[in-house]
Write a structure and sequence with these properties.
The protein is of the alpha+beta class and 462 residues long. It is 34% helix and 27% strand. The protein has helices at residues 11-16, 38-42, 51-57, 68-82, 105-108, 111-125, 137-144, 154-162, 173-181, 187-191, 195-202, 204-214, 247-264, 296-308, 339-357, 406-410; strands at residues 3-7, 24-27, 33-36, 62-64, 89-92, 96-100, 130-134, 231-240, 266-277, 282-293, 316-323, 327-328, 364-367, 377-380, 396-404, 413-423, 430-438, 444-449, 455-460. Pfam families: IMS.
Length: 462
């Protein structure tokens, strides 16, 4: 197998909104520095320092707080997002994901193309990640926790792994002290010792840790299985009082939705936003797409148009996004004459207009199974795709059929027909024989003959 690890070094800070100007830190249970941003690093603050020491170095230091539940929720949201890049995504708490990528390289065209796709998509989430690719699940986790390691050849990767210091192997602090106390400094030093001696001197747990690091066949973490129905929540770092300010946190939620749907090859026609306001009240928004969609960019545009005309009822504390049951998405293959883009853009246009103007302001013409041409088209609020197969009908139907004289009929060339249409006994009986005909100048028309022998033009073909 080939593994890719995404390590999110500032995940907890980015949940609050990572600052580039203000030093920020998070504390562990002992009130020592657990995570810090680059601005705090520039002040000389380091992980493991006491809070008092950090405050002495940076009096303007901002101390943030987060919960394990919130961190787990963010990691699961990222796992759903990563589902578009791998069928096997594993959680590595507290701040890493593991993706099996060997089966996806052909699909993306190679490892670097896959990395580029992940990097590009990651920008929309607002999170920062270090990446490492390699042969063992535990090994790539250790490397990604330190730096980006995207080696194209196995020899370079193993060399980088063996060079890891003892204190970078995520061992218990007591084990690290004992190993360093006998002069061992790197993973290479450990592996040069006989396994039996290691187990005897430092215990079998150390040997198991080493095997998990270097053995490609060692068990990987359990694969994450997303829930059956998509529902994600985003806690905001600060209250948001203007509607368009919700777009940035929405981008994260919609990226997760796209990953969720891509993994299932589905699309959804409607999403539901619940805005949790100050004072325990809520505000709900339903946003629809005429043809159904999975792309985060398309949904974000619809959300933007809707929010521009929406007045918030109060400051927003958190956002919850849920989606209705998805339907199978059939990707449109390449079209020699570029017709597919035009066909797919109509539902997008209708969706944008409804988000901007409201659902009641936009109506569509729908085709109903009625043999009478004048009763086929109806105006309704919902959009339905119509297959043109078997429908030889003019694009321009006249409001009222026009009589055709005998001299005019003699000039016409009948191309097809007759097609007998006899229907409507329950409200207005129609019995006609329809033909497709061509005029001398090349125009094609749709005409019919009634039982009494009279001829009429009913429409023109474009």
């Amino acid at each position: 197998m080939r593994w890719l690890c995404l390590h999110f070094p500032w995940l907890e800070l980015e949940l609050h909104g990572l600052s580039e100007e203000v030093p920020q830190v998070l504390l562990d249970s002992r009130r020592r520095i657990k995570t810090l941003n680059p601005c705090a690093e520039d002040l000389g603050i380091k992980t493991g320092q006491a809070l008092a020491t950090a405050l002495a170095l940076g009096p303007e230091l901002v101390v943030l707080d987060t919960s394990d539940k919130r961190l787990r929720s963010a990691l699961e949201q990222l796992a759903i997002w990563a589902g578009r890049f791998s069928a096997r995504v594993c959680l590595c708490p507290p701040q890493a994901l593991l993706l099996e990528i060997a089966s996806m390289l052909n699909y993306f065209g190679g490892m670097m193309q896959l990395i580029a796709a992940i990097t590009d998509s990651l920008r929309s989430t607002g999170y920062t990640a270090r990446m490492a690719v390699g042969e063992t699940a535990k090994g790539v986790q250790l490397l990604a926790a330190i730096e980006n390691r995207l080696c194209s050849d196995a020899q370079s990767w193993w060399a980088g792994l063996y060079a890891l210091r003892i204190d970078q192997l995520q061992l218990h602090s007591e084990q690290v002290e004992r190993l360093q106390g006998v002069g061992l400094s790197t993973l290479q030093d450990l592996l040069e010792l006989p396994r039996a001696e290691l187990s005897q001197r430092f215990g079998p747990s150390l040997l198991r840790e080493l095997v998990s690091i270097i053995d490609p066949g060692a068990p990987a973490p359990e694969t994450y299985n997303p829930p059956e129905h998509f529902r994600q929540r985003c806690e905001l770092a600060a209250e948001i009082t203007y509607s368009t300010g919700l777009l940035f946190p929405l981008r994260r939620l919609l990226s997760a939705l796209e990953g969720y749907l891509t993994q299932r090859q589905q699309k959804v026609a409607r999403i539901h936003l619940t805005l949790n306001l100050r004072g325990a009240s809520t505000q709900t928004l339903d946003i629809g797409h005429a043809g159904g969609c999975a792309a985060a960019s398309a949904w974000l545009e619809l959300c933007r148009l809707r929010l521009e005309r929406e007045q918030l009822k109060g400051p927003v504390l958190s956002i919850e996004l849920s989606a209705e049951q998805g339907e199978v998405y059939e990707a449109i293959s390449g079209d020699l004459f570029a017709l597919s883009h035009a066909q797919s853009s109509l539902p997008d246009l209708i969706s944008r207009l409804r988000s901007r103007l409201g659902s009641e302001a936009v109506k569509t013409l729908s085709v109903y199974p009625d043999h009478r041409p004048e009763s086929v088209l109806r105006v309704e609020g919902s959009y339905r795709e119509v297959s043109p197969e078997g429908m030889v009908r003019p694009s321009w139907l006249l409001p009222h059929p026009q009589p055709l004289s005998k001299s005019q009929r003699c000039r016409l060339e009948l191309l097809s027909g007759p097609e007998r249409i006899s229907s409507g006994w329950w409200d207005r009986m129609v019995s006609r024989d329809y033909f497709v005909a061509r005029w001398p100048d090349g125009r094609c028309c749709w005409l019919f003959r009634e039982p009494d022998g009279c001829w009429f033009i009913h429409g023109w073909f474009g």
